Amino acid sequence: MSNRLTPFSLRLRALLAGLLLWWLLPAAAWAQQRPAAPADAPPSTRRCVWVRLAANQDTTLFSLQDTLTVVPASVSLNGRSVAYEPATDQYRYVRPSSRFPNPEPGLPDMVLPPAGPDSVLVCYRVLPLRLAEPRFRRPRSLHDTLQFWQRPTFGTQDFSVKEQILNTPGINKTGNLSRGVSFGNAQNVFVSSSLNLQLEGKLTDNIDLTAAISDQNVPFQPEGNTQQLQEFDRIYITLTNPRWSLTAGDVVLRNKPDYFLRYYKNIQGGAGEVNFGQLPAGGFGGGAGAGISNQQLFQYPNAAGGSTGTFITTSPTIAPAAGSGQVQPGTATPPTADPYAPAGRSGGVLTPNGTGPNTSQTVTTRREAGTRAPLLSVAKGQAFATTSVAAGGAKGKFASIDIAPLENVQGPYRLRGPNGEQFIIVLANSERVYLDGRLLVRGFDADYIIDYNQAELTFSPRHLITRNTRIKVDYEYSDFNYARSLVQASHYQQLGRLQVHANFYREADNPDNSPNLTLNDGQKALLRRSGNVSRVTAPGDTLVPYDRRQIQYRRETLPDPATGLPTRVFVYPPLDTLALVYNVQFTNLGPGQGSYNLGTTPGEANANGRVYTFVGTNRGTYEPVRVLPTPLKKQLITVGTSYALDSTATVFVDLASSELELNRFAADGATGRAMRVGYVVQNRPVSLPGLVGYQLRSNIDYEYTSRRFTPIDRYRDIEFDRNWSTGNTLIGNNQTPREENIFNAGVGLIKDANNALGYRLSRRYRAGEVSGVQHWLDAAHQLGRVQLRGNLFLLNSQAGRRESRWARGEAAARYVGGALEPGYAYRFDKNRVARAEAGDSLTSANYYDEHALFVQSRDTARLKFRVDYSFRRDQTPNAEQTSLRERGRAHTWQGTLISHLSATQDLNILATYRDLSARDTTGQTQPGAPAPGFVRDRTVLGKLDWNASFWQNTVRSELSYAVATGRELRRDFAYLAVPNGQGTHYWNDLNDDGLQQKNEFFEAQTPDAQFRTYIKVFLPTDDYLPAFTNRFSYRLTLSAPREWRDAAGWRELISRFSTLTTVTLDRKSTENTLNARLNPFAFQTADSLLLSLNKLLRNTLYFNRSNPIFGAELTIQQTQQKVLLTQGFDTRNLASQNLLLRRTLAQSFTGRLNGTRAIRENQSSYLETRNFRVEQYEVAPEVSYQPSTVWRFTTTYLFTTKRNLAGADVGTKGTFHELGLETRISQVGKRTVSATGRYVGVGFTGNQLSLVGLEILNALRPGTNFTWNLNLEQRLSNGLNITLAYDGRKPQGLNAIHTGRMQVAVLF
Known about the structure:
This is Cell surface protein SprA. By secondary structure, the protein is mostly beta strands. It is built from eight helices and 69 strands.
């Protein structure tokens, strides 16, 4: 063996020697000298610095100065992390404790001087860059604002300014303008137009412009399931200035502060407001908003006859400006919530100081304490005024109605017109819903939702609706029977301590302009003879020529099933088209009030419209009469003044004059007068022993209204008449004229929300209806941690021939300050109404006692909950009306839970269970009832929301679940003729009888105008069925952690998969078992107990979802819908399984393979000929070639088979072979051109004209079919585009069909 060492051996020995030398070096020497890193090694990101500690302090705050960005999580000291405060970019180090307990009891702790080193070594890591380093593409010196004057050309090039067709500096524009034309050899020429433009900006330095302009003629009303509404159909232009504002278009008018004048109106017209002098904060209600003439003005409740309080808490002055942060009396800021009210109720407010419903709306003058101002002053800041004028056409009418509640039914409840109109449209955002005297908040997660088009109101699970619930709704509705004009003007003037105001309001229908009401000469003469009434009944039949598109009747003499006498009746259909034919309008008069009912035979149910059949006198619901509304006129003039005696006392006077014409055809009206005078003291300090911190509030006022006085809208409290134990005496056009006198006096002391005492006395005399006295007492006091509250209401009155003795009150106590806050409340309401001449003969009574217990968490607790239990016992007069007997007893449990389980989990639960035992009106006894003659009813109501994410969002879950008791509406539909090309269906007379039946209408499969001549519309009905509702919605997203994408083995494989699952069910059933009510999956569509169903099940499994080379998707979906109609049920079912594979074959080639199996099913219980179940298979390969970013070529092939497996046309089958080629040229920012040609070979077996045949063929014909299209989108300039489209189709055996379209659009 050679002794010569190889180079490798030498290097190995040198390396071992170096390692040995490093091991033998002393540790101290290594600390002084760090080894040099290799030249090619990356720089180390770890750094250490010495930090000096603060002298004589335990805590030291320090910052780390480095040229690179420090990673805060890496900062450590002796191996331990250091606390970091991002707000100050500082680190905090706390020395070991130097504070020790003193061995002597009662003496402070001993603090020793800080020991240890005066500095510590802090180590950290940095990023290889500095994130906070300023970066710029131009020298910063160019942005020096002090040198702009030396560079006059700088800034002239604004790179953010786009090329615009219409240049409007200072005004921001959004929207579009388009004009289009469509033509073809199988259709007429159609012209389309669309304008949607929003403007906002400044015309000048002092004039702001806001506008929303559109030419669409279809009104879209928002859905009433949110608190804030987005109104799509408002068109307006507003100009605002610090001194004035002008609005034209759709304007919302709200009254300014006035006692007698209240209104909320939507008009189409104009409004303006001018301010004089320097207005105070908020002015007389603030300024104008966009599209709103006086946006800041709200309705104020009324002090006279308020429902719960004794006196007002805030001065009845003008409203503060919107957004000023000030509290508006009686509106936005609620008083302290009643902790003793049942959980979940938005109301339940104990108002010992009368906050809210008793706030007066008299305009008064408030001044701060200090120098006494003169009576009349024109000095700056003491004299100001505002004048407003508005005029236009009113969109709706005001109505205020009571809704009769149903036991345990949340809704929907149908709103009706004041004259009995069954089907109305409620104007969006005009409704005010009151539940037991409390104003509710609209919203799916709040108190109620409303369908404005159907006028249906549904309450949320927050409120359990029982037969004892009081529901009142104020709203505006649209009927357009007559064109209604509206004129409004007001002036408010402040002169020192004196304030005066005047208002004029007039709304009137035009008898000669009735857009939706056709009146012949005879009907107009009838209206003139009817006098001053609000509605007139006229015959509903009209002799007309025969028209097969309408439901028409012939007239025959038939024996009356009720009396046996010959009677002239209307019979459907006409047998002889040359004989007398009638169009007949039927009116629902109520069960047993009419002679006709809806037809139920197959021919009548299948008719394209509603058919009525004669059943006998007073045996039906409908009558062939027409209710004619009359044109109305209302006018009100108000004048008021107030004078501030000092900073706390004010006297005021309000005067009003009204004019009412119920029927302008008769020109006979009524004039009335009203007056109110009073004195009010607000927040006057009390300097009496034991009352330090208390303030005095008192008021005295007198109101007089003449017998013919008629307000515009309701101006008194919503519970005003109920508190006097009488019916509605103000709202409506048919009330009996009465003279009225009301006197109010109140006094109280208030310190805060928990310490107050108040008393109020009210005397009311309404000739022949009400004569009584009310006493109100409210008190609140806090003793340590115990809060005590109570109120008492007493009434002694005579209402006509009845006497009312009413006592109502509440006493409550709550312990606060602990982890749990328990409480107890006792409520009673005992109203005995008896005949004055009969002594103890009880005519009616509202008589109950209620005990309530609750326990809740503190407001600051992380886990918020509340549990309530209440027991209520109701009594009612016996059959002899001599004494009271038990009507029912109810046990109610309610619980709420609001919890943030973690940073990624939220859980909200609301659950209510009510066990009611009520006396049965028929005397039957139900098993399990507490006593003979009683029935038992149990109610479940609840809502659960759970949102969570786990493991860094790899699992995301969203769950919403709700159960309640509601109602389901029977729906009806018909097909309405529209101009060619604007419809969705066409009619094919299958039986050649010349009459339109519902089974003869088919959905158009092509855009050809001759196949789009009808639309399907749902007809409103008033037939509701009680149902138990169950809503379930769940969304689950699963994916692998991101770290697994870089792992190996099974983790890398699983990371390629992800899934998305969605389950949505909304059903209503009549099954009363607990499992059926709580289980959302308890029913199938064929179950007769299932009234309606909307079901969606969808699951998608992804493989390589974000991989551009290869990926796959497997989707399984099922959609089911069941609708309750007047004729029966309609059920639709779609189930599909789809597999999609995609693969990038080369750099420019992409392949896709799509396979689908689907079943489309339609079932109708009344039109069995339209039932089918079509099974469909599809295979669709596709290859795309994209040589550049401009060109793309796509070839497709689609093979489809369809077969009907059920219904009248079993065995109908279709086979389709479709071959297509598409070319697309896309130049970004310039143009896009696409051309497509397809060949479709169709093999078909069956009846082509049947519904199944049309469903399978989809507008194609057996044999060879060709389709082609060419589209061009060209950008002419920035914001101006032109679109050209050409479509062609050549079915087998028919001539080619050509259609062309052109559209020019401008984008703002």
